[in-house]
Amino acid sequence: METDGGGIQNEFFNRARKERALLTVFLADGKRLLGRLRAFDKFTILLETNHGDHMVFKHAIATVAPARPGAVDDDASGTA
Length: 80
Description:
This protein is α+β, with helices and mostly antiparallel strands and 80 residues long. Helices cover 15% and strands 41% of the residues. It has one domain (7-69): SH3 type barrels. The protein has one helix spanning 7-18, and strands at 22-27, 32-40, 44-49, 52-57, 61-66. Strand 3 and strand 4 (52-57) form a beta hairpin.
């Protein structure tokens, strides 16, 4: 879908942003952030949380997952 080399990462983040899906972001140091993705670029994500906006550098992220199963629909793209 993406031609700029972002591939799966950009597809996931774009879908999460457009659907305003609640995400759980685990950082490399073990901290957990819960919020909605407002924006992202090559190096950072902007996460809207109950405690305000957090700019998180991607190199500090260990895992990103929907807070609720099925919150970011994997089948919406129509690819297998």
